Write a sequence for this structure.
């Protein structure tokens, strides 16, 4: 059975708190994409229930036949009834398995599609969202949500829907064959049971939400602590971290206990309702046999129906609670899909044509939040193939320039243009494809060196990766490693030194072969010797490309075509290194101060 993958739209953002029916409506299109499998599965479900309800009817006729005195008992049993009994038993299992076989692909594909869509949507959200998120809670929400989709589909199709169909069939048989009291007792019991279950379970849902929130909070705190393992060790704060974690676990424990107590109340109430219903049904059946209105086969039939109804009905209460829990978990995951994408391509966005790129910041204003403006009317140009450096004190807005050029945020005023075109009129994919970056803090994937360099252009071959490593003066170091390019770098690249990680970042950027290169404080975390070694590689990498260097150390930008001095978000000076020194302004003061600091550090190093 072939299926053509459909492109499913993101669900619309809800108004206010999300409701269960809205969650289900959001989920249905993912299932209906496989409508023929759904139809076949539902048909198999109905066929299985028809066979299941027919079994007690055939069994009743067998009992009545066997109750008749006869010298040759086996001859009194119609062969057709025995054959029908066996066929119906097998048919029930056959159609049940067929339903599960046909629907398995629907369930797993829906889980896969939604998980992939959430994953992709998270990558499309703005940097602002990812700076504010908590990784531990986020991953737990996705994990619970995808798992709950499978559970919800399984509970609905394999348990609740079959039970409801069977209830309707049994009610029909009771109405047609017996006095109205049987159907009334069954209907009343079902109504009371379902009402009680829904009311109490809805009350318990608030407790379950609280448990989930506390679980995510505890998980976030644990992961945050483990990610900062070295910091914890530096300050000998293992006990302090355990205490902070235990505070969250105590809240979670208390909420779990409340949830369990409420569950016990619910179970007892359900058991009492079913016990009363079963007793009333058997009383009416026994009275019918005593009065001669019903046969022994009839009481067997009623008893079989009671078992078929109330056994799954008792389980139905548990399933309803699980479904409400699953809906709560799915609601949180769909909430991630409803996070608005702050940065989106306009409807008329065009790809950036390949080739050299000239960059212009045109009277750019920007604020991360309205009350705190970061950039004020920043205006400068980087001609194609030239290098411009931006220097200034910490917090002056230097790194914000790189984030705006990547369009992680949109400018508040003015514009950023590449080859004369506003970057908001370009597709984000083509814009970012034209830009390579060597960041201040190079974070690597927990994979091989080969993978981390190849990440710059995943389609690149091994020879191209090695050529990029040579250009970054990293190849010889890699060749000396026991596993060479297959050496694992550890989580966040912790097995490599700062200089080695920076060289990987340079090689990765070179492999991408971008028209624009950004060096965002690329050497600020390195010692002077390593910085000088990498500086030459950075300058070589920038040759022939449009380069923006964001730097704190002025010695790294001496050879730039133009240097911009940024102070509190405002450009206060611009010129070459020599021109700025001759002006004797802010840049000259910064240069003199850094030269003095380096001289002092060198003197102290010599004395030690």
């Amino acid at each position: 059975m072939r299926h053509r993958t459909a492109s499913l739209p993101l669900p619309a953002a809800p108004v206010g708190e999300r409701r269960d029916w809205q969650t289900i409506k959001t989920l249905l299109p993912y299932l209906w994409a496989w409508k023929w499998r759904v139809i076949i599965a539902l048909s198999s479900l109905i066929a299985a229930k028809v066979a299941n309800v027919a079994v007690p009817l055939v069994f009743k006729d067998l009992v009545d036949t066997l109750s008749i005195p006869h010298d040759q008992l086996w001859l009194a049993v119609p062969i057709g009834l025995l054959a029908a009994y066996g066929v119906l038993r097998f048919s029930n299992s056959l159609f049940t398995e067929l339903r599960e076989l046909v629907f398995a692909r629907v369930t797993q594909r829906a889980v896969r599609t939604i998980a992939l869509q959430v994953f992709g949507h998270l990558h499309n959200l703005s940097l602002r969202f990812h700076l504010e998120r908590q990784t531990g809670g986020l991953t737990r929400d996705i994990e619970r949500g995808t798992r709950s989709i499978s559970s919800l589909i399984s509970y609905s199709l394999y348990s609740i829907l079959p039970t409801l169909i069977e209830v309707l069939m049994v009610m029909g048989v009771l109405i047609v064959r017996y006095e109205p009291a049987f159907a009334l007792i069954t209907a009343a019991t079902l109504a009371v049971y379902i009402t009680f279950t829904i009311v109490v379970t809805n009350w318990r849902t608030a407790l379950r939400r609280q448990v989930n929130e506390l679980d995510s909070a505890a998980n976030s705190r644990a992961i945050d602590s483990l990610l900062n393992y070295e910091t914890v060790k530096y300050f000998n704060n293992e006990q302090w971290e355990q205490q902070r974690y235990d505070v969250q676990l105590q809240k979670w424990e208390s909420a779990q206990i409340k949830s369990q107590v409420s569950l016990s109340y619910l179970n007892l109430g359900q058991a009492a309702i079913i016990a009363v219903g079963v007793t009333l049904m058997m009383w009416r059946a026994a009275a019918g046999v005593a009065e001669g209105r019903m046969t022994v086969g009839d009481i067997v039939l009623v008893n079989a129906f009671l078992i078929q109804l109330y056994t799954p009905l008792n389980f139905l209460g548990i399933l309803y609670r699980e479904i409400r829990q699953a809906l709560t978990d799915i609601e949180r995951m769909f909430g991630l899909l409803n996070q608005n994408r702050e940065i989106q391509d306009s409807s008329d966005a065009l790809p950036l044509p390949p080739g050299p790129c000239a960059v212009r910041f045109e009277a750019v204003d920007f604020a991360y939040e309205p009350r705190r403006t970061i950039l004020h009317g920043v205006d400068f140009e980087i001609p194609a193939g030239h290098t411009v450096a931006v220097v200034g004190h910490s917090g002056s807005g230097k790194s914000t320039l790189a984030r705006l050029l990547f369009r992680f945020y949109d400018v508040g005023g003015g514009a950023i243009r590449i080859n004369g075109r506003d970057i908001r009129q370009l597709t984000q994919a083509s814009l970012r494809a034209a830009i390579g970056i060597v960041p201040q803090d190079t974070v690597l994937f927990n994979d091989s060196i080969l993978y981390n360099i190849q990440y710059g252009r995943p389609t690149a071959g091994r020879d191209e990766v090695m050529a990029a490593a040579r250009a970054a003066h990293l190849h010889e170091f890699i060749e000396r490693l026991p596993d060479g390019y297959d050496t694992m770098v550890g989580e966040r690249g912790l097995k490599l030194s700062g200089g080695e990680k920076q060289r990987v970042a340079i090689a990765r950027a070179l492999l991408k072969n971008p028209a624009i290169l950004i060096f965002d404080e690329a050497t600020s975390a390195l010692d002077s010797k390593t910085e000088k070694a990498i500086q030459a590689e950075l300058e070589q990498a920038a040759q022939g490309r449009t380069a923006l260097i964001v730097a704190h150390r002025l010695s790294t930008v001496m050879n730039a075509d133009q240097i911009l001095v940024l102070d509190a978000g405002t450009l206060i000076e611009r010129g070459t290194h020599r021109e700025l020194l001759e002006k004797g302004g802010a840049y000259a003061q910064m240069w003199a101060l850094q030269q003095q600091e380096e001289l002092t550090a060198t003197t102290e190093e010599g004395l030690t």
Remarks:
- The chain has three domains: 22-337, 359-434+514-607, 444-513.
